[in-house]
Amino acid sequence: MNIKQIHSDKEKENITRMILESLPEWFGILEAREAYIAESKGNPFFCALDGETPVGFLYLKETGRHTVELAVMGVRKEWHRRGVGGALFDAAKQEAKKRGYSYIQVKTVQMGKYAEYDATNRFYLSLGFQELEVFPTLWDARNPCQIYVMAI
User: Fold this and answer.
1) How far is residue 121's CA from residue 146's CA, in Å, rounded to a whole number?
2) Beta 67-75 vs 103-109: how paired, if at all?
3) What is the edge-to-edge ordering of all strands in the sheet holding 2-6?
4) Cα(104)–Cα(94) distance, rounded to whole angstroms?
5) Per-residue confidence of the chain (152 residues) as pLDDT tens digits?
6) Count of helices and strands (H, E) across the chain
7) Residue 76 in contact with residue 1, Cβ under 8 Å?
8) How many CA atoms lie within 13 A of 149 on its CB side?
9) d(Cα 94, Cα 21) in Å, to the nearest integer?
């Protein structure tokens, strides 16, 4: 497995669609999935490849002059717990640092709501993210938004 930065917006969209459609437990809401696909364009984008086959991706989005967000990450389920997410994050973090950002943030569903998202929370905590704040109704009452941050 290797990590490659992708610059072609069409390739970003294709990879994002392929991976997110394989992960309905996390990306089952069509409108949200399509928004993630559309927003992949123009942002720093990293892809994990097994040979020539994409197995995961991550892209960043600026949220402030000093802050970038890990906007979305997807890793095919058969590649979970094999270091793909960590490798993608390491590459993205280095790019964020190179671009002069001071902080990176990520949003997910608050711990304790759904098993799939509890695993996601534990993953972000393992990378070194720390809890910043929970917004109980940012998305909706069933999906309280947990924001994690990290200095880079």
Assistant:
1) 9
2) parallel
3) 2-6, 45-50, 53-64, 67-75, 103-109, 143-151, 130-140
4) 11
5) 999 999 999 999 999 999 999 998 888 888 889 999 999 999 999 999 999 999 999 999 999 999 999 999 999 999 999 999 999 999 999 999 999 999 999 999 999 888 888 989 999 999 999 999 999 888 888 899 999 999 99
6) 5, 7
7) no
8) 10
9) 28
